[in-house]
């Protein structure tokens, strides 16, 4: 982890310790946008455990920790811009955050725009990773733990 960073990598302008650093230390992020910002900062800082822990628990076993660590370490992170954040409410609460992340690696400079989905469960926001399998049929219980059918819960936000 790069401890020489004083300002938060998420671009807030705040000190790391008073911004994403507190979420990395265990305080739950209060919103999907704050979670997304803290996840970007975690990539910058190489905090693979945090990235795994803030992904929907039903997907965590499917994440490639080595690939996450390699991408984090082999990239020079250039910045994050949040274009929008929308909270949908409901039980459980869902949200989407649209952002652009920029980085440089051996292949050159990259920019990635994404609209990520998040769900809140038991006071914690989780990233719903579209690249990790969610083993649930439409009528199965939702993997987020809401008790609802998958088709009425998280599947709506993966499309």
Could you characterize what this model shows?
The chain has 159 residues and is α+β, with helices and mostly antiparallel strands. Helices cover 21% and strands 28% of the residues. The chain contains 4 helices and 4 strands, in the order ααααββββ. The chain has helices at 20-24, 32-45, 48-53, 65-73; strands at residues 76-89, 94-105, 108-121, 124-128. A 4-stranded antiparallel β-sheet has the order 1-2-3-4, with helices on one face. Strand 3 and strand 4 (124-128) form a beta hairpin. It is globular and about 45 Å long. The mean pLDDT is 91.
DSSP summary: helix tally: 4
User: How much of the polypeptide forms β-strand, as a percent range?
Assistant: 25-35%
What is the average of the pLDDT values? 91
- Assembly type of the chains comes to single chain
Classification by helices and strands: alpha+beta
Order of helices and strands: HHHHEEEE
Rg, nearest Å: 16 Å
Principal-axis shape: globular
Sheet of most strands: 4 strands, antiparallel
Model regions low in confidence, pLDDT < 50 over at least 5 residues: none
Distance separating the two termini:
34 Å
| Count of β-strands | 4
Helix content: 10-25%
Entry summary:
With 159 residues, the chain is α+β, with helices and mostly antiparallel strands. Helices cover 21% and strands 28% of the residues.
What's the arrangement of secondary structure elements?
Elements: H1 20-24, H2 32-45, H3 48-53, H4 65-73, E1 76-89, E2 94-105, E3 108-121, E4 124-128
Antiparallel strand pairs: 1-2, 2-3, 3-4
Helix pairs in contact: 2-4
